[in-house]
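Propose amino acids for all 214 sites.
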């Protein structure tokens, strides 16, 4: 049994990625607080090329705190949280796009905020899924789990004098069965070989009969 060990690069991407995205979001939120923005204003003030109000600033700071806390707990938690937060970013951007310049625009989004939400959401999704959500994880991925090393399959073609002799006897028995001249032993062996699929397995079954008769 072979157990996969954590790959330090994958773990670093998850933890550092969460902190890096959190830093950008935190700066946006802190600048909003520093500007004394109205908490529930639907007409926000410009912050870093986007629009913000007090509620969006609070949400940004809390989100950044969640990402940093996840990174501190571990790479696996950071990965999961980034995927969840990334999906929420994309959903919130789409929902806010539908209510721009209306009284339901509680986060005071403008189109630039929608673009940022999409970019930040995709970034979080990609960083969180890195080395984790793929169809064929590498051996050294920490998310690959335990992998069992399978025993090599027996060779398909005979490689020893005993196997060559068994192959010849197998053919003779099959021909005898078709011609209705087979012995009882040949019929039993051919019937047993019919239960398996590969040539190597059929040869093994034949040779087991030889072993049991010794």
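Proposal:
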């Amino acid at each position: 049994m072979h157990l996969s060990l954590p790959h330090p690069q994958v773990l670093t991407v998850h933890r550092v990625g969460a902190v890096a995205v959190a830093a950008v979001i935190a700066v946006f939120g802190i600048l909003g607080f520093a500007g004394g923005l109205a908490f529930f204003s639907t007409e926000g003030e410009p912050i870093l090329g986007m629009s913000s109000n007090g509620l969006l600033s609070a949400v940004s700071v809390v989100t950044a705190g969640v990402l940093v806390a996840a990174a501190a707990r571990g790479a696996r938690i950071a990965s999961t949280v980034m995927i969840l937060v990334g999906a929420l970013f994309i959903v919130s951007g789409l929902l806010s796009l539908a209510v721009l310049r209306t009284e339901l625009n509680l986060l005071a989004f403008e189109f630039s905020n929608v673009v940022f939400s999409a970019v930040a959401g995709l970034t979080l999704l990609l960083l969180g899924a890195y080395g984790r959500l793929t169809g064929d994880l590498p051996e050294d991925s920490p998310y690959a789990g335990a992998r069992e090393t399978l025993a090599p399959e027996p060779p398909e073609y005979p490689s020893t004098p005993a196997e060559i002799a068994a192959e010849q006897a197998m053919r003779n028995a099959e021909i005898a069965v078709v011609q209705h001249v087979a012995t009882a032993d040949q019929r039993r062996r051919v019937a047993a070989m019919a239960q398996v699929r590969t040539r190597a397995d059929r040869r093994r079954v034949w040779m087991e009969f030889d072993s049991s008769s010794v």
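The longest helix spans residues 8-34. The longest strand covers residues 45-47.
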